[in-house]
Amino acid sequence: MKKAPTILITGAGGFTGQHACMNFIKKGWRTVAAVRTKQHFSLNCCSVECDLTNFEAVRQMIQSVDPQYILHLAGVNSVPQSWDTPLTTMQNNVLGTLNLLEATREHAPKCNILIVGSGLEKTSQPKEPPLHPYGISKTLQRMLSESWHVLFGQHVVIAKPSNLIGPGPSNGVVSLFAKRIANEEQKNKSVELKVNNLRSQREFLDARDAVKAYELLLLKGQPGLTYEIGSGHSVSIQEIINIFQQMTSVKIKVIDQGIKENGVAKMDTANMEKIGWTPKIAFSDSLKDILHYHRSLH
Amino acid sequence: MKKAPTILITGAGGFTGQHACMNFIKKGWRTVAAVRTKQHFSLNCCSVECDLTNFEAVRQMIQSVDPQYILHLAGVNSVPQSWDTPLTTMQNNVLGTLNLLEATREHAPKCNILIVGSGLEKTSQPKEPPLHPYGISKTLQRMLSESWHVLFGQHVVIAKPSNLIGPGPSNGVVSLFAKRIANEEQKNKSVELKVNNLRSQREFLDARDAVKAYELLLLKGQPGLTYEIGSGHSVSIQEIINIFQQMTSVKIKVIDQGIKENGVAKMDTANMEKIGWTPKIAFSDSLKDILHYHRSLH
User: Fold this and answer.
1) CATH of A173-201+234-266+281-293 given 3.90.420.10, 1.20.1250.20, 3.90.25.10, 3.30.750.24
2) Nearest residue, CB atoms, B150 vs list A99, A129, A147
3) Do A95 and B91 touch (CB under 8 A)?
């Protein structure tokens, strides 16, 4: 019998990290969850505490885990937070990735690494100035990852997902809506949702579909390449609210602040389709599962 | 009488750093030299020890020095060293710059900062892969610096000098030749110089001319802009040897290894000329001063 491969997942305590752990545990892989603190991590797999900004800590982790695969999800992934703490954002997203690449080069040089970037980083127009510290942190993370492949031949693939949604502890707008609705259902009232702009279009993808894409990229991704991952279609905030309204008896009222938002480039999923990936989960099913998740917390 | 401005020079113990200190001391500015260790620093100005990769140390330095100007020269600036220690190279060149920008933003937000990049970083073709860890470290340093100007409005100017030469402790090829020649003059013998390629063309600029450019950029540089600094003409290794041969009675023999070298893009000094800078020191005068420096060490 072939030995199960070992995968190290960084940022395993986060929203996507937990979905990733569940996916690889289910597949029977030896799944090691790297978390900042084990305190709130409850999934049934091996976990290690590691501050990725500390090279010596990362080195020891890679040496002891000896992974064949690394899924690097850790980092600051909030635009507002990146404005509040740009230093921490850069340290986590850039230095953390550098430490991981270097420790792996030293102790697990044959390891397949997937670096998860962000659709909020615009690769199509690299000359355009960044919109926020988060954006530049993800640009530098990607360039660093590509360079380590070119310079040292490391097996590094880059994923660029759009907005991920799904059941679990997400801070995204869809999850926040569902949380508010589920809260109000306890009191049988109406709920008032304040939105930046009802007509804002965004592309959403279920995190469980994204994790399937990550799995495929770890196995079949071409080193040095960036793979955009998305559902292929955008929805407006208005449409999200319409779908939620059909799922609840709570009356949803909307306060539209009419704030102009930066248009987000649509993902080009051609590279993903080439390796056989397409999203499976319908948008309305994602919303149903998200609402169900928040109801289950009561 | 107007109070003399305060300038903080990082990497002040290095080859260019020492020339920079001498320049600003001579101008009567309050010159503070930031060095890794004071042990070998002998110039007659205020000096502070600081590990730039440690944010808290940088924060304390900026707070206590309270500079109006920062000339940021510190960092790993050797291509071979960057291959040996890519982690240290990135930490020094990228994280060190980040710490400096952040500490300045916090404690000296009106400070004019000049970040000294490198001609070995190719901005004209940003899509091309890097040739060495040093190259990518300088690319990320530049992008970070540009971003901090765009995102936070910091007064950050970027300089991109070609190969700097001049009297002093340089590890460049010109200085190494002069050192070998000066050594042999003690013994009145011939000297054998091993070169990668006699026909290699490079652009050299005297560090004293570069420092004048930095002074001008601190005073008149446009924030967010990158200024290429060079002499405007290239010379071959053969020409350098010819000039040195005329200055010494030691017979110079050359072993040409015929190694093909990457052509270095010529600097575009148009932006520098616009603010009134042109190099003043003739190439042969630089060589004379370099040889004189090495003779004086005996």
Assistant:
1) 3.90.25.10
2) A129
3) yes
CA distance B198 to chain A (A): 27
Query: Who's near A271: CB < 8 A, 6+ residues apart?
Result: A225, A226, A227, A228
Question: Residue A252 is encoded by which pair of tokens?
Answer: 């949803």
Contact criterion met (CB < 8 Å) for B151 and A143: no
- Residue A229 distance to chain B (closest CA, Å): 22
CA distance linking residue B195 with residue B252, whole number of Å: 12
The answer to whether B275 touches B215, Cβ cutoff 8 Å, is no
| CATH code of the domain occupying A6-161 | 3.40.50.720
| Cα gap B80→B136, rounded to integer Å | 14
Selected for mutation to probe chain B from A85, A87, A104 (highest B CB count within 10 Å) is A87
Label residues B56-67 b or e (16+ Cβ within 10 Å = b). Answer: ebbbebbeebeb
| Interface check A51 vs B, CB under 8 A | no
CATH class of domain segment(s) B173-201+234-267+281-296: alpha beta
Q: What is the pLDDT along chain A (298 residues), one digit of tens a residue?
A: 678 999 999 999 999 999 999 999 999 999 999 999 888 888 889 999 999 999 999 999 999 999 999 999 999 999 999 999 999 999 999 999 999 999 999 999 999 999 999 988 865 555 678 889 999 999 999 999 999 999 999 999 999 999 999 999 999 999 999 999 999 998 878 999 999 899 988 899 999 999 999 999 999 999 999 999 999 889 999 999 999 999 999 999 999 998 887 666 688 999 999 999 999 999 999 999 999 999 999 8
